[in-house]
Amino acid sequence: MLNLNDISQLSIYEMLEQSVQKYPHRLAVIDGLIELDYVRLKETVDAFASVLYQKGFQKGDRVGLMLPNSVHYMVSYYAAMRLGGIVVQVNPLYQTSELEYMLEDADPKWFICGRNQSEKLERVKKFENVHVIFTEDENGSNQVLLKEKVNELPPLNINPKEDIAVLQYTGGTTGKSKGVMLTHFNIVCNIHQSGEVVAPVMVEGEERLLGISPLTHAMAMTNMNNAIRTAATYIILEKFNATRVLELIRQYRPTFMVGSPTMYIALLNHPDLEKYDLSCFKICVSGSAPLPVEVIKELERKTGAQIFEGYGLSEGTTSTHRTPLGGKRKIGSVGVPIPGTVSKIVDMETGFEEVPVGENGELIIKGPQVMKGYWKKPEETMLTVRNGWLYTGDIAYRDEDGFYYISGRKKDMVIAGGLNIYPAEVEEVLYQHPKVAEACAFGVPDAYLGEKLLAVIVLKKGESLTENEFLSWCEGRIARYKIPRAVEFRDALPKTIVGKILRRQLVEEYKTKLQI
């Protein structure tokens, strides 16, 4: 059973220490040709922490990590945790304007990145006052952070409930990106909460976790921390590539995977999938966006694993709901609240009245994983966290068995002719078409209806389909008012770094195209 008192004083670095003590020679990380056991990982972390300390790094300093998935990210992350620093997560794909905004907002004193980012950094004046550390030396050697000599380190001094560990910037899919303040307590608790769900099948010191989602995203960061907590082997892939993922599965036989729907869809649509055995997985977890029902069924057929649909958000560290292990399971549901979490559905007008079972409302949650607040945004914090309740902005309903279902984002809801349409609900139907690989439904302003629903579709490789054929297929499968008014076929959809489809980007694009 989850006992928050047992973990309330545990820092992220101390989780690493515990695994080192229990499983010193267990393989901790595989990054291509680099393999470190738990003792060597801790020595490397401490050595880099001592370098930072000698350079003047102090508790509370903010350090931007603009790194791809790599052992360098892990070493930098835990070194910052050792010194009581605050990791500012920076997407390596960010360009000048995005970097300028983040530097202005987070104001990091330190910045760690690869030399391939140097040209980009030179264009940002703010970097003149930031101490930049590259992961490679002038000769291109990538071993810069992988030293073992530990010099002086200060005493470990962390207040888990108060000290911020990470500034996790929201995806910016619904507006200006905000820095979510996550404490050591938030992160450690959420890892243990999620761990309780899978505890019956996940064996400490024996698992192999596949790390394919970008570590600068909260979901992947939690997966990495969970690997450390359970003394698992963390298998790193710098960038998602379906063929390379399948090769890693063949080589290392991972038991646990966390990915986005687009990643799972890419694997299932791989032309050589039948050549690979995916039966090594005990559990596959989907995050960042709803996993279409048809994809869940196909994934279960291919892997034999338990597919964990779930729900979470950066403001809730990552996870708040998960499919329960064993017992009743409902495909299409995000499951039930994870241990230590309370949730309810409230009316969207006042945000106070709980709505009846089966009725849509705003999902709100309470638990130890709820963020400390938004960085330098007290007004927005007060709007989002009220009396300890996190207002998610997501529309959901609960059934009679206490299972939750996400209908869509409050801001994504389309009102066409006075009727509410939830894009996620429509997409569930669109994914049922045998030729559809990916789909995104969204609303744009309309003079007559108020808003009208459109859809952009990506077809499976080698397939063809006309708009009329597709719209005819929709007839009888979904209420007429929910059928998209127009469909466009594309080769790809705009996405975030973790593969979440950027619905708002399509909205803005179409508003410009339609001169709205």
TrEMBL record:
Source organism: Neobacillus citreus
Domain AMP-dependent synthetase/ligase: 16-375
PANTHER family from the UniProt entry: LONG-CHAIN-FATTY-ACID--COA LIGASE, NONRIBOSOMAL PEPTIDE SYNTHASE PES1 (EUROFUNG)-RELATED
Residue stretches in coiled coil: none
Family: Belongs to the ATP-dependent AMP-binding enzyme family.
Residues of the AMP-binding enzyme C-terminal domain: 425-500
Statement: the UniProt record of this protein carries the keyword Ligase: yes
Record-linked Gene3D superfamilies: 3.30.300.30, N-terminal domain of ligase-like
InterPro entries reported in the protein's UniProt record: AMP-bd_C, AMP-bd_C_sf, AMP-binding_CS, AMP-dep_synth/lig_dom, ANL_N_sf, ATP-dep_AMP-bd_enzyme
Keyword Ligase recorded: yes
Protein name per the record: Long-chain fatty acid--CoA ligase
Keywords: Ligase
CDD domains: FC-FACS_FadD_like (cd05936)
